[in-house]
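Figure 3 (text version): structure tokens given as input.
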């Protein structure tokens, strides 16, 4: 009889080994199938379904739930063996405490206590997935099953994360291309050449903070020698600002060629901007017209940083005008400024990115400092003044970053009657 008992024990060991071999073979086949699916770029939903099927039918996991982060929140992407209502519980705050594999036998959370074990998948010390498994029987080879579930969960999680990163990279490449196109559009909107005559000189500085900025300037010369010029600051940056700038420029050129009054131009520009933005964005604008025959300057300041008019005797901030464009469907007030220019005059218009520049001590390049610089360089040509200004602000900012777009339009007018 002892021989019979030994035979039974041997058969039992053989059967156990056969089960272990079969399980190992099953695991290998499952991993090969998953790997092939990943190589064939099967969609995430397909991988989740395969994961669920392997755990339920081939590994015999009775309860499981797999969580991934979607739009900043942990969402259950696949589950089996538990009531759907349990998945409605918000577990985002609870998951952060799981940094390694651990049992859940003492958990009091209504969802967690349905499972025996949680398996976090970590990437660069951050969790990218959580697998909850449970429902093990007395006959289960728990250790081997957990080892396999850990392996296959890591494989699936890394594959899904790679898909997410790849899509993110594609979106970034598309965005980069859109920004490149917007920058190209923007470069065509600002003048590549500024007119000049014995009556005036013009020079500009145009430094977008990012690839695509929200600043704009333009100059239009009329046959009799007069000029109209403007500088504007569009809220926002990027592609949306470039598109609004393109719309703004098209409207400005269409209006200015009809030769209406400055008041009519500004009213129509305000209505056009509001139609496009519905008040969500607005534009500050300084628009001026210089008549060379009688040396008069007409202007409207629509909420823009006041340009500075410098003569040998005084500095005049050009503030007269109205509120910003596009905020309201109709401008509640508007006044046109008129100035006679008897002597050589500097008209310096800029966007507030210039005076927002700071040095290492946090000191701003304020309007006061700007006026001091302009007084010291008022006798320079428009181009030379801008060249010196660039060197001056480079020295002032002490390698601190530019806070915003910087645009300058410098106009000098002469008494050449």
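Below: residues designed for each position.
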């Amino acid at each position: 009889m002892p021989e019979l008992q030994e035979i039974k024990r041997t058969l039992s060991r053989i059967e156990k080994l056969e089960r272990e071999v079969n399980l190992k073979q099953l695991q290998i086949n499952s991993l090969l199938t998953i790997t092939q699916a990943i190589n064939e770029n099967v969609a995430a939903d397909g991988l989740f379904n395969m994961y669920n099927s392997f755990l339920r039918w081939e590994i015999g996991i009775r309860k499981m739930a797999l969580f991934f982060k979607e739009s900043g929140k942990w969402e259950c992407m696949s589950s089996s063996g538990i009531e759907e209502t349990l998945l409605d519980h918000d577990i985002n705050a609870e998951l952060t405490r799981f940094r390694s594999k651990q049992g859940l036998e003492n958990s009091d959370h209504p969802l967690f206590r349905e499972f025996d074990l949680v398996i976090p998948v970590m990437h660069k010390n951050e969790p990218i997935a959580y697998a909850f498994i449970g429902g093990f029987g007395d006959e289960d080879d728990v250790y081997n099953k957990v080892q396999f579930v850990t392996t296959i969960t890591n494989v699936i999680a890394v594959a899904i994360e790679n898909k997410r990163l790849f899509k993110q990279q594609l979106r970034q490449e598309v965005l980069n291309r859109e920004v490149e196109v917007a920058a190209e559009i923007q470069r065509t909107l600002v003048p590549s050449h500024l007119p000049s005559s014995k009556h005036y000189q013009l020079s500009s500085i145009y430094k977008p903070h990012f690839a695509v900025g929200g600043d704009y300037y333009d100059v239009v010369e009329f046959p009799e020698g007069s000029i109209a010029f403007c500088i504007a600051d569009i809220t926002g940056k990027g592609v949306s600002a470039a598109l609004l700038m393109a719309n703004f420029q098209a409207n400005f050129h269409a209006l200015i060629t009809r030769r209406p009054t400055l008041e009519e131009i500004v009213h129509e520009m305000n209505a056009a901007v509001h139609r496009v933005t519905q008040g969500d964005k607005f534009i500050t604008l300084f628009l001026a017209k210089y008549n060379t025959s009688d040396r008069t300057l007409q202007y409207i300041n629509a909420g823009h940083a006041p340009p500075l008019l410098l003569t040998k005797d005084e500095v005049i901030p050009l503030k007269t005008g109205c509120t910003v464009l596009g905020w309201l469907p109709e401008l509640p007030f508007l006044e046109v400024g008129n100035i006679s220019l008897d002597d050589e005059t500097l008209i310096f218009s800029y966007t507030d990115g210039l005076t927002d520049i700071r040095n290492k001590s946090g000191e701003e390049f304020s309007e006061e400092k700007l006026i001091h610089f302009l007084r010291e360089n008022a006798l320079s040509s428009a181009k030379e003044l801008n060249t010196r200004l660039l060197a001056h602000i480079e020295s002032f900012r002490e390698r601190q970053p530019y806070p915003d777009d910087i645009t300058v339009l410098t106009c000098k007018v002469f008494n050449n009657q």
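The helical segments are 2-39, 44-58, 92-95, 142-189, 238-256, 262-277, 367-376, 382-397.
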